[in-house]
Amino acid sequence: MECCPVLTVDVVVFHEGKVLLVKRGAEPFKGKWALPGGRVECGERVEEAALRELKEETGIEAELVTLVSVYSDPNRDPRGHYVSVAFLAAPKGNLEPKASTDAAEAKWFELSEVPWEDLAFDHAEILKDALKMLLHLGKSP
């Protein structure tokens, strides 16, 4: 069986000790919380896709700070082999999230209130990696 991996992006946005999450409005994981993100379009750079998906799903604009990592486990998504490039971003301008496109809801979560066991895909791992990265750099979320 031949398989073509699908390229996606995920964005971790922290602000004043909170993280931005979206409630998925579509399967897979409909109704579960996740990081903003989605597919990279043909001809689009992953950095552009990350900022576009973040704005489409939450209404929040940001600047990318750094790459968190690449997540390529062939079983990370029930739809098939999806590879995600995850970024850490800092919000700019409006901080009031407004869900749109395939997000049913968008909101800031205190880190102590994040539904860790209930996050979609491997987003708990991505979020933990982003937190470790910040701690290593001596910064707070």
From TrEMBL:
<protein>
    <submittedName>
        <fullName>NUDIX hydrolase</fullName>
    </submittedName>
</protein>
<keyword id="KW-0378">Hydrolase</keyword>
<dbReference type="InterPro" id="IPR000086">
    <property type="entry name" value="NUDIX_hydrolase_dom"/>
</dbReference>
<dbReference type="GO" id="GO:0016787">
    <property type="term" value="F:hydrolase activity"/>
</dbReference>
<feature type="domain" description="Nudix hydrolase">
    <location>
        <begin position="4"/>
        <end position="135"/>
    </location>
</feature>
<dbReference type="Pfam" id="PF00293">
    <property type="entry name" value="NUDIX"/>
</dbReference>
<dbReference type="InterPro" id="IPR020084">
    <property type="entry name" value="NUDIX_hydrolase_CS"/>
</dbReference>
<dbReference type="InterPro" id="IPR020476">
    <property type="entry name" value="Nudix_hydrolase"/>
</dbReference>
<dbReference type="InterPro" id="IPR015797">
    <property type="entry name" value="NUDIX_hydrolase-like_dom_sf"/>
</dbReference>
